[in-house]
Write a structure and sequence with these properties.
single chain, four-stranded mixed beta sheet, binds magnesium ion, alpha/beta, Rossmann fold
Length: 373
């Protein structure tokens, strides 16, 4: 029995995780649930699952749950927790990952900002505490699955190719993209996800975050990590080896498969409720190059990854502010990459060697972007 702390229980990954747990009551038990702000859904989940602990990050205690960001840490470090599923949105998820790793937990990571803002600190925390990090994101799960199998035994990958759906504006003109509305940006063609990541998929900032994550997760240089647009979202990643062989992991787009794998890696367990793949229904699979001019946030993010240090934290912080402003209809879609670029240009990169340094870079980026808005 693996005992689970689920951080971000009411979001898209959180509710998908509970769907998976519901099918495996003999293997997993949620002992801690922490939600962002959806107190009503959290109350339903607590009634259904009877966890030992429940908390609400953006609460004032009036809903009857322990409130504040401390709830994430409290859940992540409990003695009765084996696996922490971190599905918190944004840089707010970083500290929970670090403390869980220091406490020796397995962290099933859906919070990409954790590795993007503080990849080196995360590796250090895992080393010091004996914790381990397993990705939930479909592309990184695909890479991990290709590397975990016997086909990869004894060799290191020479190249990763992460796929990107291309988002709703894949074929749009640069001009139309710049003026895209919130409803258009939230209308993702293949994946059903939360609002923040859906907008990130529309700008391709999400794919830049994933390249940076892959760099830290698989210890590969940026020259060895490529991205290809694959509108059907069937192949999640390719892994190339030194002999020229390429492995790919595929399936219909659903997060429940990578979530279950993150909980059981390196083992696989049967799941009668999993979405079954049908190649005929999937139809033709196509691949095309990223349109860098149309989606400048992608190149800005990868460049920030290459610059290293605090640059990825600045990219991420500015992007979070820009996406929130876009969703609040304060700025047009085309301003998102401009604000990121402004924040990166204003920042002097230093080594991201402490949580304080990362937090300061994140705060500076948010300030610069907010002032520009
Ligand atoms: Mg992904």
């Amino acid at each position: 029995m693996r005992r689970i702390a689920l951080l971000g229980s009411t979001g898209s990954i959180g509710t998908s995780t509970l769907n998976v747990l519901r099918r495996h009551p003999d293997r997993f038990r949620p002992v801690a649930l922490v939600a962002g702000r959806n107190a009503a859904l959290l109350a339903d989940q607590v009634r259904d699952w009877q966890p030992a602990f429940a908390g609400l990050v953006h609460g004032d205690g009036s809903a009857g749950f322990p409130a504040g960001p401390e709830a994430l840490i409290a859940a992540a470090t409990r003695d009765d927790v084996d696996v922490v599923v971190n599905a918190v949105v944004g840089a707010a998820g970083l500290e929970a990952t670090l403390t869980a790793l220091r406490a020796g937990k397995r962290v099933a990571l859906a919070n990409k900002e954790t590795l993007v803002t503080a990849g080196a600190l995360v590796a250090e925390a895992a080393r010091l505490g004996g914790g381990s990090l397993v990705p939930i994101d479909s592309e990184h799960s695909a890479v991990l699955q290709c590397l975990a199998g016997p086909a990869a035994k004894g060799t290191a990958p020479t190249r990763l190719i992460l796929t990107a759906s291309g988002g709703p504006f894949r074929t749009w003109s640069d001009r139309a993209i710049a003026e895209a509305t919130v409803d258009q940006a939230l209308n993702h063609p293949t994946w059903s996800m939360g609002a923040k990541i859906t907008v990130d998929s529309a700008t391709l900032a999400n794919k830049a975050l994933e390249v940076i994550e892959a760099h830290f997760l698989f210890d590969l240089g940026y020259d060895a990590i490529e991205v290809v647009v694959h509108p059907q979202s069937i192949v999640h990643a390719f892994v190339e080896f030194a002999d020229g062989s390429v492995l790919a992991q595929a399936g219909f787009p659903t997060m429940e498969i990578p979530i279950l794998y993150a909980l059981t890696h390196p083992d696989r367990v049967p799941d009668a409720g999993a979405t079954r793949f049908d190649p005929v229904a999937a139809g033709a699979l196509t691949f095309e190059a990223v349109r860098h001019e149309a989606f400048p946030a992608f190149g800005l993010g990868v460049a920030a990854g290459r610059a290293g240090g605090t640059a990825p934290a600045v990219f991420n912080g500015a992007n979070e502010v820009a996406v929130a402003a876009f969703l609040a209809r304060r700025i047009p879609f085309g301003r998102i990459p401009v604000l990121i670029e402004t924040a990166l240009a204003a920042h002097s990169v230093v080594a991201a060697d402490s949580l304080d340094v990362v937090r300061a870079a994140d705060a500076e980026a948010r300030r610069t972007a907010e002032e520009a808005i």
